[in-house]
Design goal:
346 residues; mainly beta; five-stranded antiparallel beta sheet; 7% helix; disordered N terminus
Length: 346
Amino acid sequence: MKSLATLGLLAALIEQTNAGLRFPCSTLTTQRLDPAAQPGALPSAHLHMIVGGNAFNATMEGDVGERATCTTCQMAEDFSNYWVAHMYFKDPKNGTYHRVMPRPVQPLLGGSNGAQGGLTVYYTQFDLSRDNLQRQPIKAFPPGFRMTVGSPTITNKPHAGLSYQCMSGSSRGTIVSDFPKGKCSSGIFTTHHFPPCWDGKSLDSPDHQSHMYNTVTSEGFTNAPACPSSHPVRIPQVTFEIEWDTPKFNNLWDPAKDKNPFMWSFEGTGAGTHADYMFGWKGDSLQRAMDKSECFYDGCGSIKKQAMSEANKCTVKDFVKENIEGWQKVLPGAGTPTKVKRSFSA
């Protein structure tokens, strides 16, 4: 299946899909924490938007699913954590920064209305139309597993599967590899497809990626090519989707004379888009869902769900205790943020 070009098309395709999981997770917290790429760092180098279970902290080892007591995800047995760098707007007039807030990806399925910010997660076995389990069995992640995709240090072009779209009306727009150059009337849509191949033994690796092998070569929910002998274990293809509410800033810049003012919390370039994953499903719940043949959305009811009003109650404490609200002279981590008085409030 190719990229889902419009929300209307997505809704129509959902009626025809027969494989994989798809569900929203509200924002759990927004802090400079990164237990995958910078375990133990308090704070981490840059700001992240984090969703999932309340076991999240600067250092995470062992069975996260057993330690967490709540989750911001609709699937009540998923205590995993998912996080990305936060998007920012940099005012071309005075160089100050303001966070761009995420909003729930549409459509919200199966009673998931009420999601707040956050992102939508997919776990697919093959693609969204079929699971192909007889030819390609899927092994769920073990407790303690983590992985990352992309890197903030990349400056040329991100790996296939890491993308941007300029939303207009109901259209998600064309998939591109960098921030859109013009104003997006409905926001910026970002996607992160994770690697599908695991070495079968390492829960992590020094660079948080070498224990995985990325065979993704195209955009959209297509099946990734076969795994190599070095990384023979096929795991669920994890994907994040996020809608960023950029229209609130559209009257503050002019594409005719200003360069793209949107960036990630590490500044860098659009090619540096990246995402982190920490497995935390309870018991064998994810494996049960992956073993269900020709099911979409919730594993044919094999996973317990919760109302998003309940999910939204899940929180963690503020570990870093720094001001990230309003307009800032510098990005968090680039110095001591100082709040700037402005008449505009995003």
